[in-house]
Design goal:
Blueprint: E1 5-7, H1 11-18, E2 30-33, E3 38-43, E4 52-58, E5 74-76, H2 87-92, E6 94-99, E7 101-108, E8 111-119, E9 125-133, E10 139-147, E11 158-160, H3 168-172, H4 179-185, E12 194-198
Parallel strand pairs: 4-10, 5-10
Antiparallel strand pairs: 1-2, 1-7, 3-4, 6-9, 7-8, 8-12, 9-10, 10-11
Amino acid sequence: MCGRFALYSPYPKLSQALRLPLEPGELRPRYNVAPGTWITAVGHPSDDAPLVMGEVWWGYRPHWTNDKAPEPINATVEKVATSNYFRGAFAHHRCLVPADGWYEWLPVDGKKQPHFLCREDREPIWLAGIWSERPDGKPGCAILTEPARGVAAEIHSRMPLALDDESLEPWLDPHLTDRETIRQVVHHLPAELIIHWPVSTRVNRSANDDASLIQFC
């Protein structure tokens, strides 16, 4: 799954990695991004609107539901294209969530040891997401997850769907709506690029947010 991540790369680096026209901006480094907060995402507000980087609420609840409807933070790749709850957003409202890495917890001797997972080259990771206007009129998103691959499987059975560089543009294309076509042109990041190491249990408390959280311990 994906329930906590870090984003500290500066805006120019993210813009360059996307190879897409984005206006200059500033991002506050965050080392402990938790669900139920505003997070950075990239997408098209509508089919004909230009690509923008902005904030969305990490919690998906479509506008056609009510305040008592589920608010998942993740959507599985196995069901996102067919579930009544997600399929409209998968077809028309896909987005990318930039991250420098994510956290996962490994059970060890009856306790859970957090690990930080990132690219070996420390480049930003682009997580596939979907978004929808929420009942309150604001955008909310869920990050897609897939079965864990490579060393990520040592920590947890699932991982966020990280995309390779060539998949970023088609994933964001609002005119690309067919499920099978999307599956053919969008590919996940090669598993061999991912590494991990144990970090402090301070990350368990979302109020802790500093660079020491990602240091080896």
